[in-house]
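Request: Not sure, any thoughts?
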Amino acid sequence: MRQRLPMLLLPIYAACTLAASSCVESSTPLDAGPVTQDAQVRWLLVNPANASIAPGDSLPFIATAEDQSGVKLSNVALQWTLTNSTVAKVDSHGVVTGIAPGAAVLQATAGSVTTLATVNIGAASSADANVWVSISPASKNLIVGQSFPLTWVVRDVNGNPITGVPVSFISSDASVALVSAGGVVTGKKSGEAVITAVAGTSRATAVADVLASQVANIALAPKSMTLQPRQSGAFSATAVDSIGNPISIANAVEWGSSNPSVATVDDDGNVMALAPGTTSVTATIGNVQRAGTVTVQPSAPASITLTPSSLDVTLGSALKIGAVVRDSSGAAIPGARVIWSSGNTSVAVVDSTGRVTGKSVGIATVKAQSGNAVSFATVTVLTIPTGTVAVSPASVTVKLGATTRFSATVRDPSGQVLSGRAISWTSSQPFVATIDSNGVATAVGPGSTTIAASSGGVNGSATLIVPGGNSQVDLSHQPADMTPLTDRPFNSQAKSLSDVADAEGWASSESRYLSTFSITSDPTAPRSPSSVAQLVYPAGMPRDPSLSYSPVTAWIPTPAGTHRMYVSIWLKISSNWIGHNSQANKLMEAFIADHPHCVLGLFGSGSAPLRPSIAINGGPDSRAGEYLPGNVAPTATFTRAVRHRLEMVISANTPGVGDGQATWWMDGQLIGDYHNIMWVGASEPNHWIQLELMPIWGGRNDQLVVTQYLWVDHIYASTSIH
């Protein structure tokens, strides 16, 4: 059985008139007595909404009117209408009597509010019950007195267009927009009306937005703007008529960008700069259009990262230095121009691509400059190439917080020791241990890391283990080709007062989380005692019940081109945990592009059992918006007040092909295994770009009645590239 993610349902209310050649009408008040004001009616409910009767049989329909506050109204004048008087008739009390096989739409109207119901008489014909209708355009702006025709297509159950099926048209407010029997819509006064096409029991809608006056001119402010990538701006549009009077244009402006790869514009005129270039942003109302110019300039270089920053080159050979130019936010600037130079051209020269060639034995400094940003690399030109680099000790265990020193022995191809060689040190998992330029390593978190020493383009390595790390954890569900991404034990405090989530390689820009996300002591934590992350869900949150709530948002980016991701999280929820009424209790999200396509969470509401599940959050998959049930262990329950370990492996799909993967376990037990997921379509990127800890409660339309808690002991994740 599929369970759906929560959806927000908005009420739609309107007054309807019928444009059809075959209809019958009757009217009566809902109750006897004086008739109320029609304007009080806001809701009109008809029961039943769909019914079937045989020819000759009768069935009463009941209408209930309510005001703005949901209070039932009496003495409301009511009109009943049938769209097809050849198959049924309706009396003034809403009693429908079948005449002949077919289908009709019953319309109940009180004041300006109309509700529809479907009536089938006998066996509906294929041209009646087994059809569906579509109309276009879906929305249209027009002025008072202007008309436009609707086009429609009626199809059979196989999707084939068919003819000969009557189509009726209904306007939600004929005083705003009138629709003819032939589907021609005419603007009557300013406002919005919903046009409904009815074919058999099928319906389709379009929106007519009627403007009061003819727009003669549009003024844009500003006329142009200059931005840098990831910056935003906004245009405003003012419309006037032919004599210069302002015209209200709320929701009537259609915005567009001539080059959305440079900058996009939303329905409110808000501009987002994406890449250097120029684009025209247009505002259109009816037949009047004005354009503004958006120029996106390259970001100003703020820093340059050189790789490597220290290298050995043998005499006469060449090696290339890579350069990444970044702006003030730390984002890379693609295509930024870099100017290279050597401080000692007699020792080493460098070309325009960063390729360094050794000219004589010695040391030279290579300079890379982009704008005002400058960085340097040290080049050592050697006569004898490096053969091997041996790191000692080869393996060592270091307690958390302690240090140890590694040494490297460099030899030439014949095995002779080479002294005085430059050595660069790196740690594959800097969240487990860091290492400085002298080979001194510091244990900063549980786990295992590879310490590498590089000299003359040759590497040597050793293993450093911090007790409590993944060397003591079962990772049998992790695919063999994975590279560790994060190994966070939640035992670090914040690097600054801005947010605890900034620690251990994760980031968050929300300082408001300091009161709901903290590091606390828990010696019983099974994965990495004695500290855990404590997340607080205060009673009364969210203050606006129509919103969802999360006590923290923290993320870590994945390497470019990440195709597969493995995640393992140790966590516990409080014994009083009340599941959201939408059954959505989210834990972690994985992003493709800028959307969280995959959600790991607990499915269940109130005090009912919670099921570990994965949701397909959007995208072209037919199950998008749903939690996937455990197809291996569907009854597995996440017990409150008990620590559990959740694991998942997710793989991106081939663009447009349903071959993506979602597999998850709880406490080592396989819960669900799917290999037919279409996370993204054919024209979309298909790489995971970010892992996010965002434990949202909800869903919408619910509020916490008690303060409840979530404790996270540890998060481990790894990735692999295509």
User: Anything to note?
Assistant: The longest strand covers residues 554-573.
